Amino acid sequence: MMMPIEISVASPHLGTPYGLVHENRSIEARPLDTLSLLGAEGCKVAVRDGHGQVYWSGLGGEKTSFVVGGALGDQRIEVSAPNTTSVTALSFHVQASTEIDDEHGEFKDLLEMLHRSMMVYGGVGVQEYAGKAYRFYVPWNLDQCMTAKGMRYFDGSTHEFVDLHRLGQRRDGMIYSNTAFDDGPGYFDTAYGHLGLVKHEGGLRWTRQAVEAMPEFFYVLNMYGAWMDKGDLAWLKETVDSGCRALDYVMADTRLRWSKKYDLIKRACTIDMWDFQASDKYLVDWVVSPSMVIDPERTKFGIFYGDNTGYAYACRCLAQMLDSAGRHTDAESYRLRGEQILDRTNRLLWNGQFYTQRVEEDPTVVRNFGVDEKSQVTLSNALSVNREIGHEKSVQIIRTYQRIRQEMPKGSPGEWYMCYPPYLKGFDMHDGLWEYMNGGVSATVAGELAKGAFENGFETYGSDILRRIHDLGKSHNNRIGWAWRGAPFPPYQPADYQTIDLASLANMDIADRASEKAAGCFDNNASVGNDLQAMPTGDRTYAGVPYHIADPTTNERRCGVGVAAQGRLPRKVEIPIGMTAKTLYLLQGLSKTGSSQLGAYVKMLYTDGTQSTVYEKAGQEMAGYWFPQLKTPTAGVAWSGPNARSSAVGVTWAALANPKPDQPIRAIEYGAVEDGAIAALFGLTLSNQPHPVPRSDDSYGGPENWPPASCTYALLEGLAGTAPATAGFESADVSPRWASCAVDNVTCRTVLPASNGYVAYRYAHDPRKKTITLSVTGSGKQIHLHLLLPSEVGSKRSVTVDGKPHQFKESFIETSRYLDLDLGGRPSLVEVKW
Predict the structure, then answer these.
(1) What CA–CA distance (Å, rounded) separates 777 from 825?
(2) Closest Cα to residue 710, out of 405, 451, 400, 418?
(3) CA distance 414 to 487
(4) pLDDT tens string 793-807
(5) Interhelix angle for 158-168 vs 141-151, to 10°?
(6) Are 8 and 26 within 8 A, CB to CB?
(7) What are phi and psi of 34, to 5 degrees?
(8) What is the DSSP string of 85-124?
(9) Around Cβ 566, how many Cβ atoms within 10 Å?
(10) pLDDT tens per residue across span 752-789
(11) pTM strictly above 0.90
């Protein structure tokens, strides 16, 4: 009879090694943990993974150790005694999650920061279609694809988004841009309904943004990503034909999507692939949102390179899926189509250094955006580096961004512009200068550029990008958001102030009693002493701004311009101005507000007949005069003191931005609101400068989860070098590039939860001993190792795998040198010596 056999585990994450008796307990382990058997001396030992495959076997000793590998799940150790058929089985559970543990914790912290940032909207959302739930990251084809680049390593639902859009695909193959809860006909039907780009079906509203020319190829890329994540051949065979119909639709729709002149995808004039057009003389009028609507006959179409590099890449990905599905003739057709489209794009839009953004179909169209459009480098250049456009073109794009780094505005967060240099006009409606798509700096560009740098021989540059992204995240509340402003705000200039004398319009005293010429303070005659008599008058300065306050002792007891919906005070007062201003400064008091919390309104009446109105709210622009509390970047308490009824009464100041600073203001109407507040204006000053407030370099715009996803993609597949070569990590590419950032000890585990496929390694570089050791394993059958060698490695070197000499090759990318060899999926110990 065999003695009970004990398993012990030596794993850094579990602390002190311990033993568990097989009869009454199980053990948890991770790939690359070391497990040891005690009590199996002289026995045959075999270890089976979660799929029942033996990945380690040998003869037991006093202590028999092995490295955990193989498929995740419940694994078994089978121990058979000599000269008997008796087998003792011991089970343990192997699980893994995506993680990096580097010696200084820098890239571990970066990965955790990126993961938190990707979870900004809760990570995974759910939509119901025809009674079934489908998960997504962002309910847009573009955004889902970009976010999935990182989220696929933490969540396994990428195929559900594809399933939903396959079911919703239009009969002619068109793919909708996005889905939302169906709240009935509305804005989108008015904007896009005439083009057949909106439908209400299955509880969802399906919308195709009219300007977008890329949902079809992003749908195919979503499909390809889901196939690589899941590795489900039956799913692929059911799904892949919808990808063919999607790409075919684009070429067939010469009315909206395909240029017969250039035999390439066409679109209206936008910044890169965004969905709003330039607001210039060529913009077609429409009842709503003309910048987002196209007209087949009147819109001036052109060729944008990013649509076409993306489509060509999608053709290659579709060809791979068709090959996997056994449709090799179809695969070759799409592969050839991709090559032809990329060739036409290169001949039309490649300038030798990067892709120029656009060529108009109509050569008579001449636009004036205040910038040389041929000099502009936009987001899709960085995306194209990872779309198999060729090594030489990728290198030129990378060098272009390095050049931008040398010439960008001083104080810029980085060279990762979504459009550089920005448009000076034409996109003001959607995009401020150096903001969003028009010169904003994005971690999306940084991530794509870093990934391309790692793949094309610029590894040190790729590591530098990730380190700078880490630093930016640390300085922005440990968060990577959508974008940063591309240039610092210009410094505030000293303001010229013009005080407005309100004495002739004043109608309210600061004392409690009314007179023939003036109402009592806040019309408060019944409350003796409840007033602002202690408030200083004359020329005063509050928060650095001068005011002139009428002196009631020399102005018939009139001090403030009071307004009220009821009582003696007027509902409104018009104050003549006759000048331009960027900022209006108001010195005000307020009685108790009603339920609306509104205090007053300020209407700017311009000389051209237009007007702008600001409704002032308690707590934002105003405060009640008893115990006044107000502190915002544009408002605060000006003066406070006691009266006979309260220990603190006072008035506040507020800075209101004029939305039309270049248009002369004829007059300002100061008016009351309907629910009871009495407001009083004691001082009014105009400024020729904006009010100086603290300004953040956070920009605005798109979904905040896909920039960190792009950086996750660069970190895991680029620097850590762990990427599936075939679906579900059945084979893996392992390309550790830690030599590019002088990190010598790293453990990395990268998992695709959709299939539970993974690859894991421990990397150790010892410059003194002139060795690199790599313990590596995975769930699949093959691992191709592509190891970046440190610069000090000489020409004489040896490679062993599990202590035995192993064949290898060397390859060069630019000046970078790699060691290449193939391994099985089982745990292997690679050692390089020089």
Answers:
(1) 6
(2) 451
(3) 9
(4) 988 899 999 999 999
(5) 160
(6) no
(7) -105, 120
(8) --EEEEEEEE----EEEETTSHHHHHHHHHHHHHTTT-S-
(9) 11
(10) 999 999 999 999 999 999 999 999 999 999 999 999 99
(11) no
